[in-house]
Amino acid sequence: xxxxxxxxxxxxxxxxxxxxxxxxxxxxxxxxxxxxxxxxxxxxxxxxxxxxxxxxxxxxxxxxxxxxxxxxxxxxxxxxxxxxxxxxxxxxxxxxxxxxxxxxxxxxxxxxxxxxxxxxxxxxxxxxxxxxxxxxxxxxxxxxxxxxxxxxxxxxxxxxxxxxxxxxxxxxxxxxxxxxxxxxxxxxxxxxxxxxxxxxxxxxxxxxxxxxxxxxxxxxxxxxxxxxxxxxxxxxxxxxxxxxxxxxxxxxxxxxxxxxxxxxxxxxxxxxxxxxxxxxxxxxxxxxxxxxxxxxxxxxxxxxxxxxxxxxxxxxxxxxxxxxxxxxxxxxxxxxxxxxxxxxxxxxxxxxxxxxxxxxxxxxxxxxxxxxxxxxxxxxxxxxxxxxxxxxxxxxxxxxxxxxxxxxxxxxxxxxxxxxxxxxxxxxxxxxxxxxxxxxxxxxxxxxxxxxxxxxxxxxxxxxxxxxxxxxxxxxxxxxxxxxxxxxxxxxxxxxxxxxxxxxxxxxxxxxxxxxxxxxxxxxxxxxxxxxxx
Length: 534
Known about the structure:
The chain is mainly alpha-helical. The protein has 4 domains: 155 residues, no CATH class; 83 residues; 131 residues, no CATH class; 113 residues, no CATH class. 57% of the residues lie in helices and 5% in strands. It contains 21 helices and 6 strands. α4 runs antiparallel to α5, α13 runs parallel beside α17 and α14 packs across α15.
């Protein structure tokens, strides 16, 4: 089946999923407006480039469509969430909406590319092309988005409810309730009045919404007021009444996972590199074969001072991991280049610090022997740059020498750090997904971003930190990491590393990640660039 035919089947599946909402759209006024001119500008980008490719998701025209979709979904979140909901819940849901908006934009732009040519393979005239674009826009950004908006309202409300229920633990039972009218779906009616403790696994799969336009809810009830359901029978009933293809995707608890839309939604069926492009980063080809070649590659591609002293050619995979972390951050947050002037190893940084200080000493003390000055310079460099037991560090000192930045401790090179990081994650010292060298450097670059934005002093961050920190060390350990207890700066760096490396970042990580992107956009990206707060 060709790609054009695949998208025919794709849209048939979406129309089937959203059917009830799409039918209602004809009779109701939409609760949002979508700026069609942004989609038409993205279509022009595709046409001018002779087709669509994934890298176009990084173009301001495509980013504008992603952000417009996110804006609409964010109004749905605002409509569903009560005002008193914690910032972590709101940011986590917005993060999922951002990713969803990116995948949605990928598919709509891909269809734009397919619409450029006739069945005979000839390029359509621009006016004919734009006629088809308007149809695609109506389908994705009005019909489908209407159903998605309604779902986001319901999911946000239920996620907030789950957060409230969690605070009480099993003090109350939870009871599943339908709208109990003639419109209730037969399969949902079978779950009506299911009564179980909040800790029962049933709620991991069947906490509403359990379908598009689902009106079911869950309420707290006093222990003993209603008979407790049999857990095994309740789970079996849930499995049986949601066994259709369209129903199975809703087997998750949005309050636990903080996912606004089902993780198996059709939009998610996309090449792996799409997620990176949504985040604004497509990796360049890695060509170095030796440490020396890698040092020059860092200088050429990242524009940093670099020494990888302490690494050998056996460590090229780890050298590339460091590069990928920095490359992604420089692409997404170019302003941190002004802070991160050195990338490499601690040993290499100490050598460059010593050389720079020796040059200073020679000018200051021209009559002294180079041997004495060299000892002084090396001693100073070790005091500034050494770190005996750490994996890596972010250091703001020696910026005037071009040597502020991040460095890896090569005493951990090779299998040693891989084994240690796996143990760290297993013991909850670091967050889930953060058992790689890239995650270590993402953590250090989180410190660089913090310094750039003054994040640890920002009122919006303090609101998040102030809500989580008083809950105690065990809460931070379970919901972020043990190391995240150290102070607010490590809280930020740990959360940022999880945000980038955990496939489903938890609420604290999602909140910090979304806040970083939002504050960076507000401070450094103008509205005219087509990029706005995610």
